[in-house]
User: What shape does this take?
Amino acid sequence: MLDIISNILQSMVIYATPLILTALGGLYSERSGVVNIGLEGMMIIGAFTAAITSHYTGSPWLALLFAAIAGMFIALPHAVASITLKADQVVSGVAVNFLALGVSVYLVKTLFDAGQTPTVPVLERISIPILNEIPVIGTAFFDMYPTSYLAVFVVIITYIILFHTVFGMRLRAVGEHPHAAETGGISVVGMRYTAVIISGILAALGGAGLSIAIGNEFNATTVAGQGFIALAALIFGKWHPLGAFGAASFFGLTVALALVGQLVGLTAYVPSGVLNMIPYVLTILVLAGFVGRAEAPSALGKPFEKGTR
Assistant: This one.
């Protein structure tokens, strides 16, 4: 029984990690007032770039670096369209999603003449001595992929930045009252560009975890809607780093329960497709039912017109 609980916790950490990183990326963008439907596309570019880099260099660590850089560049078109051109932010995000999937699948087909990359080198787990020997929780929380440690670090640092630094105060100000922030000498455009670029970097790192930690290749279904789940986690978490962390972890837990259900033979009674669907259904029902109404930043989705009210 203890082994089953340990396996559930370990799987929860693994599957929650990409969602935590991506949800926190979305938090930066949306706290600044820019809707980021493009998280799915940014994850796709991160997963694709990480797999390609790991394949050609043999270094999954270098793959993480290049994925972050690629995330920064895929976020730029969304920033330019949403902030400078004042286009519809939802449409811009959807365009990023289509662009990312189309480009990555085309390049994989061109480079490898196949629907997926070859098997690529992946990240190795990092164990913390002594702590990894704690019964039940040791292997789950202290024998993790580097991306999981990174996700925990980003949660903590995001909370500190958002609520205990000048940058965080300005970020929240431009997302709530951009004209008041402008009057106070804050560059609304600069803050929003910075936030969207951070969003792209974190979402791409989340995607990289899917191709070089959870998986060992990239194909068209590697991300499979997890960018939208991360966006839902952000909303259910009420645009708060700890809330997003909790919501993403809950989804990871439901995935873990579904996997363990298959391992113990539940597929003899329930179709595997239904088991795979359970995490999504439970996430929506439980989070929507218990979290209550979420209040978005006041200026979310509203283009900023300098000098107007």
Summary: The first helix runs from residue 2 to 31.
